[in-house]
Protein 1
Amino acid sequence: MTLSAEDEHRLEQFWQFCRTHQYFNVGYPEAADFDYSALHRFLYFSINNCGDWAVPGNYVLNSFEFEREVMHFFAELFSIPAPHSWGYVTNGGTEGNMFGCYLARELFPEGTLYYSQETHYSVMKIIKLLRIKAKKIATQPNGELDYDQLATQILCDGERHPIIFANIGTTLKGAIDNIALIKQRLSAIGIARQDYYLHADAALSGMILPFVDNAPAFSFADDIDSISVSGHKMIGSPIPCGIVLAKRHLVDRIAVEVDYISASDQTISGSRNGFTPLVMWAAIKGRTLAQWRERTRRCLAIAQQVVERLNHQGVPAWRHPHSITVVFPRPSERTWKTHCLATSGEHSHLIILPHHHSLHQLNAVIRDIVRDLGPAAACNASQPPMLACSA
Ligand SMILES: Cc1ncc(COP(=O)(O)O)c(C=O)c1O
């Protein structure tokens, strides 16, 4: 393989572009504080993790032993004994959510999936692909599910086997659906625990909550059936990936035998990335639990400083207690485009990640938000131009 000088030049330009924009993301939750250079040499090989990492197949160039360790780490983190669970390294949060919904649909083929209005858009794709009946439930202003409406809707539908898609950190507001309240409402309308499925979409917060004190319920200890977490968000990865973990007896129902590689497969893809399990492995081996805690604490502390700075300057910004997502009213298009802020409807957010080391790095974005939304902006908007703020 040889690239022409022109193509080499294009790659060089793209390299420079990546270096310039490496830390662009204040609106999207991709951590950029990683260094996986110890893994670069594995890009010389076609590592393929097709099938179950627990079953040695005939395709020997796999990273199963690393994937096993990754899944054991997450089983412990999410409070389920490893032998009672099974999961794998996915292509990202969406695939993990799809896997959870697939298990649910196999368990309750006629069940209706209930998801909140603030659920990530990918749930719509999953519903279509898996052809699951689904109902959208309203949210409270803080982004949490409306638990009463959930119960009322299930009763109205006469649904005996609801599939609950709970948000453990919504995309825009970082809201966490209260698992205890969901369970309580279902019990109150006469639906026993064995008659419903509970999936946790913990794309971002799944790697925050294990490292904070007094975390809300989100794990298998709280009786979820499956959980999906993105690898390229709070963990950090050069390639999108994630992990999904579920109760083992639910996964066993969907396994298929693959004779030509002498393996068993219960994943969504056929061939699977063998490099990203190495990335996840290096990430979990590269930090102690105390270091994960400290990394999380720092992000939460800076997020709180951003809220306070914005509030102090007249912007009604807020965040949920265990969230690194700072929510505020939508600023001007110029501001959200300049700083790549995620914006939806009336709200925008910024997300504090481990590569943000201090408030200082965020001065420019804070300045622009305050210019658009602070008291001076309100004054400009409400006064006739001739009188604007001059008094
Ligand atoms: C709450 C939530 N769920 C799922 C996803 C999808 O994750 P991924 O982009 O890793 O597929 C996202 C992505 O932003 C998300 O915020």
Protein 2
Amino acid sequence: MDAVTITDEPARGALRDTFGRTASDLRISLTDLCSLRCTYCMPAAGLDWLTKAQRLTDDEFVRLAAVFVDLGVTSIRLTGGEPLVHPTLSDLVYRLAALEPRPELSLTTNGVALDRHARKLADAGLERVNVSLDTLDRERFAQLTRRDRFDDVLGGIAAAADAGLFPLKVNSVLMRGSNLHEAPQLLTWALRHGHRLRFIEHMPLDADHTWSREDMVTAEEILDLLRHAGFALTPAPTRGNAPAEEFAVTAGPRHDEWATPVGSLGVIASVTRPFCRDCDRLRLTADGQLRSCLFAQDETDLRAPLRAGASDDELAELIRAAVAGKQAGHGIGAVDFVQPRRTMSAIGG
Ligand SMILES: C[S@@+](CC[C@H](N)C(=O)[O-])C[C@H]1O[C@@H](n2cnc3c(N)ncnc32)[C@H](O)[C@@H]1O
């Protein structure tokens, strides 16, 4: 875990925590429902879904987002669950884009229904999209996601690029005994299409609690595998608040007919090289609970006060207090680490 210095100053100003970090990026999970059942994320039978009454309404999402923007949040990412199953997504994007000052708006999606929605979303004000894709093999896709939707995802990616949501980021989780060997193909494919691939380390947020530090594929292992396959990767000098370590890809495998491979690769090594010291993220769950970390054990309930008629100032105070309580680091690897009750899909990845 990175060392984090405790500052003398109490949390003050906009959304500063006691370690001197400022929260400016909000991830909103619109729903815990998902159209896929990725084996490393969710059981085949799904989870105990939230009821409609438990989930925030669009008016509630917009009201809370406005308070966060007032407090200095400059970017909002919509996620889930699967945000494209949210029936009024483009209308919600339009309303969020009208906030002052306008936040940057992006979406993380499995891409299954993106071909039908990309244009509407771009027109509504969406600026960027991250699509999750772990394999280029149709059969493996069906095994990994328990759904035969590979072609839909590829169609969704193409539609997003056509709609101007470009360059898009592609997120891949590599699992041993499954898709690990596909890392070079995934990178070649992404570079050829001008997409920005990011490999994400598997984190202990799975519903089945099968994650293990010994079994997970590490960033180092992925980089070794790619270099061994013939990629020349040069680390970018800085990464700021971005979770991904960026690498310039300056050459590809020699046997490839591919002439001038250029582009970049991101690696999100949340487990082995945590970036907690620079974390600027907050997460709002679909049922209105604010989390200052993916791995937090505590949540701040914003839904109950919101529904009880709290003013914007009262909501802002609750948000400030939650940020002030943000822990130094996620603590994976510590002897007392306990996996949070909610899974990745229920928090909003
Ligand atoms: C939970 S999904 C939610 C958004 C959308 N349904 C999607 O597929 O992008 C967001 C991302 O989290 C990743 N993910 C899910 N469980 C994970 C875990 N335990 N560790 C790391 N990444 C995970 C998925 O692969 C996906 O890229």
